Amino acid sequence: MKLNRRSLIQSMGAALTSPWLRGPAALAAPAQAADFPPAPAASAFPGTVWAQRAAHRREQTRDIVWLTHEPIEFLQRRGDHDADLPAYYARMTDPANIQRMAGAGVKWGRIFFYKGFGLDFEQPHMQLAKKVADQMHSLGMKVSLYMGGTMFTETLYHELPQAEGWEQRDQWNHFVPYGIQTYRHYACPNEPLYRDYLRKVIRVGVVDLRADELAFDNIMLQQEPHSCRCPRCIAAFAAFLKKHYPTRDAAMRRFGYPDTDWIRVNQWDSDTQPDSVTELNDPVLQEWVRFRCESLAHYANDLYDATKALNPSVCVHFNIKGVYSFNRYWTNAVYQPLFAGKIDMMSFDTGGYDEHIDAHTGALISQVRSYKLARRLETSCDDAFNNDVRAATHMAFGYQKPVPGIAPTPFGSSAFNVFTPLMEFFREHNERYYTGVDNVADVAAIRLWPSMAYSISAAYVPATLAEQVLIQYKVPFDLLFEEQLDRLPKYQAVLLAGQECISDEHVQLFLNYVRNGGTLILAGNTATYNQWRETRSTNPFLPRGVSSRQEGKGRIVSIPQIIPAEAARRSTSANEDPEPGATAQHGVHMNPPQWVLPRNHADIYRTIADGLPRGLSISTEAPLTTVMELQNRAESRETIAHFINFDRKARLAPFAVTLRRQFPGPTRSVTLFSPESSDPATLQFTESAAPGGGTQTHFTVPAMSTYSMIVTS
Predict the structure, then answer these.
(1) Three-state DSSP class for residue 111
(2) Minimum mean pLDDT among 79-93, 429-443, 518-532: which range?
(3) How far apart are CA 353 and CA 308, in angstroms?
(4) Is 329 within 8 Å of 453 (Cβ atoms)?
(5) Which of 178, 208, 655, 695 is the most buried (most CB within 10 A)?
(6) How sure is the predictor about 6, in pLDDT bands with cuts at 50, 70 and 90?
(7) What separation in angstroms does the CA of 642 have from each of 373, 392, 474, 618?
(8) In the 8-state DSSP scheme, what is residue 674?
(9) What is d(CA 321, CA 579) in angstroms, rounded to the nearest whole number?
(10) How far apart are CA 577 and CA 328, in angstroms?
(11) Rounded to whole angstroms, how far apart are CA atoms 645 and 659?
């Protein structure tokens, strides 16, 4: 059977950037000796056991038709004109195909369930999905069900005419479509009847189909001027303002009006007028962006609670994407900390951010920031494994949340039919070295709400470039948001880059951190404004002209300027789309090819490293084209260093590493694990006294291609 190129790329499990675009994935079985034929002698088969296993997996799964999350009706309506589609779906859902999957060790699959056509319309394919899900469960496989996030007007409104009243409406009282698919409309997140309807759908998925995971897509709002201004949202915004500014004095202080009832949401003259907005100085727009973020998060939180009320073991997966160098709070109303505790898995699903070095600018592009966000939110991540650098980044930085409904990362949606030596290595070592770990962090890089929400792009430049220095210089760090500032005492230094808006309350919190012995590193115009972007007469951290000072037991130091590289300034790359196929991104933004190390990157690194009272937990001679993550595994008292080479054209020469001992007692062993070798290798090491007390271990990492893991015990 032959499918056309569009069908293959968009729907049938091709290895694309986005797991939501490529279709859901099945997964390979854990590597166990019984699953494989005896390995030939080394002289006859010089490849590693990982290469042998990958080849065996590919052969086992050669005739499998992989499951997709898209129902056939959607592909037909979208215009995927291929006469073979019905035959393809028949083969895909054939019990013999599912049996072949199980026989090949596949333990997971995502299948179509609810796209937004309506419960009645979707009953036939739901019944088919149930047969597939029942068979998968009988074979010991986990089942993920796809939950679309739009309403199909031609079918749902036919079933439920009242659903038209659930729509979002922009300022011109026009529906808000899913890009050019104008037959798909977004529902208002503040409409309770729509949530009630989705609860019925969730019940079918959890109770009738016994889903192990519900994967909710399209969790976002649209950019101005297409944000929802329906009567529900206008009333909810009025209540939001009244709650936060209930008195005359509070309203006068914030808006200059005695009563928030007088306030009207800003109107735009044209579709492109918001492009001219570079910062949000208008207090109503500031409150509006927060209201939209909270509305979307409350909507998602409700879906999470509805699912967990039926079965707490079900994994709840939201496609909310990661953190980038443009203001998604403003454009798409996604502020991830508001999802904390109400999400088990998050997708990145954004074009142009796959791990690579940009061929034109030399920028090292990665999802490291997104993984850092997810770990501190304690949520797992779903991203593609379509190249070894991308897979290795997931291995090194990913967090695996212990939810029964989740198939472990090497066997879940991201890994579906990726059978490479690296993936087989990951599957073999996942439980032993990639679970039950937490990262080591010397520095907390802070992104405060008002700084990042009220600046459309300017604040993102120093923040992104400072984080890029941390990433490429391999400084162990966490990415924190203001909801997580109670964690500050665990870090040697706090970095405020681009954090121009800081409240008096947070100023005192940072000063107390310094007084207790921490180092506060400022970059650019930090604390120029308060939390409402009102200009301060004096800087609360450093007087004008002063570059550093003592404060209690700690100190405050300044990086006067983060200077973008010329390659970044010259980049003319197109804006990346935050929702592939759905929206056009307005305005000027900093894009991945501009993530070039700043011109003064060495000075920035030295300021940060010198500011650590106990010194770096790890230092290395590995080049700036590599990244590193350092983790502790408390159960086995091991420290694990992951190194990833982003330069696919060059094999990495051996490099020296100095590692601060993380657990009491002397180092017993340093062991290298690599997909380039069938067996781990023991590395020679020496020890010495570490600055500030304790001991440090010195060793050399051998030459490597893409990935190495070093375990110190």
Answers:
(1) strand
(2) 79-93
(3) 32
(4) yes
(5) 178
(6) very low
(7) 18, 9, 11, 11
(8) -
(9) 9
(10) 11
(11) 19
